[in-house]
């Protein structure tokens, strides 16, 4: 009876799950990449699955190239995903979800298991994506003080309740 109650709205409107699923993506804590595919192959499959017949091959290739360049993975496009560093694998997980350009991105502990340099690169990337008009929501456990400055809004939760905003 002490739980949190309320209603979730999107831009002031009741959330229609069919529409919301198309507007948002969820990136899990663990990267679920196919180890025997190259970065380019993984992105090509994602483009074909997410974009279907809407776009031609050349258009899909341009989208993939732009995403890989933006995320600093273009030079690794021929690398097998299992050979990528932890930070590169996390960026590829983000890249795979950017193919259909979702305006809302949820990430579950995206910095877990990464070194400090990779963490900073990832958070700077997420900030760049937010500056492009996307809403980024992520959980981060024990961020460094310098990392706090990279976030626009911070909510600290304890037992499911907001204790700092």
From TrEMBL:
Cell location: Membrane
Pfam families with a match to the protein in the record: ABC_tran
Gene Ontology molecular functions: ATP binding; ATP hydrolysis activity; ATPase-coupled transmembrane transporter activity
Membrane topology designation: Multi-pass membrane protein
Any one of the GO CC terms: plasma membrane
Principal cellular location given in the protein's record: membrane
InterPro entries assigned to the protein according to its UniProt record, in alphabetical order: ABC_transporter-like_ATP-bd (IPR003439), ABCG_transporters (IPR050352), P-loop_NTPase (IPR027417)
Keywords in alphabetical order: Membrane, Transmembrane, Transmembrane helix, Transport
Gene3D superfamilies: P-loop containing nucleotide triphosphate hydrolases (3.40.50.300)
Family, similarity comment: Belongs to the ABC transporter superfamily. ABCG family. Eye pigment precursor importer (TC 3.A.1.204) subfamily.
Protein name: ABC transporter domain-containing protein
Organism: Heliothis virescens (Tobacco budworm moth)
């Amino acid at each position: 009876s002490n739980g949190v109650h309320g209603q979730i709205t999107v831009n002031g409107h009741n959330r229609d799950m069919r529409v919301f699923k198309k507007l948002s993506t969820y990136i899990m804590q663990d990267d679920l990449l196919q180890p025997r595919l190259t970065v380019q192959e993984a992105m090509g499959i994602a483009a074909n699955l997410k974009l279907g017949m809407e776009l031609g091959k050349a258009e899909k290739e341009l989208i993939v190239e732009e995403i890989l360049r933006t995320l600093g993975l273009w030079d690794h496009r021929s690398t097998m995903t299992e050979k990528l560093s932890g930070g590169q694998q996390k960026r590829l997980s983000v890249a795979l979800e950017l193919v259909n350009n979702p305006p809302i991105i949820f990430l579950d502990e995206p910095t877990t298991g990464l070194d400090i340099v990779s963490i900073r690169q990832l958070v700077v990337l997420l900030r760049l994506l937010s500056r492009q008009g996307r809403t980024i929501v992520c959980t981060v456990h024990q961020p460094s003080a310098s990392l706090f400055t990279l976030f626009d809004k911070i909510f600290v939760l304890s037992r499911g309740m907001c204790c700092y905003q």
